[in-house]
Amino acid sequence: MSFAGESVTGNIGFSGMKLELLKADGKSYFKADKEFFQSSGAPAEAMEMIGDKWVLIDPNNQSFGEIGDFVDKKEFFDDLLDPDGKVTKGKEKKVNGVDCVALKSDNGTFYFGKKDGRPISLVTTDDGEGALDFSYSKVGTVEAPSSDEVIDLATLGQ
Fold first, then answer.
1. Which long-range contacts (CB under 8 A, 24 or more apart) does 62-65 make?
2. How many CB atoms lie within 10 A of CB 123?
3. Looking at residue 158, what is its pLDDT?
4. Residue 101 pLDDT more than 90?
């Protein structure tokens, strides 16, 4: 995820599925592959209407509202930095070229830079495949998609 002021862009992947996320002009959107919509029980005709359009995120939508938490910087980091269970200090090591302190919890192992305490990586699996890496490059703001590129699920079928 790239956070630039009030705009956000990024990708998340889970269970072999991928979501593209975007927040601009106060609205949040996502794009997903067919497998994502199938796993959520969307009917074929809805998937056809959505196609490759951006879906407007309604935070009150029971099926997709939580996706908006990923593009809300405060919500994203509050959830991420709230560990499950007991936290213990892990073995210090270099991660992505940065000397890190490790904190372990039921969520996985979170690596923080020894110099500045910035999050570097959250590794959620023993094999290291499930990881969320952080970088601190400057990114530009993003623009909202045009109205013909967006579908509002609340208006589907009306």
1. 64/30, 64/40, 64/153
2. 21
3. 44
4. yes
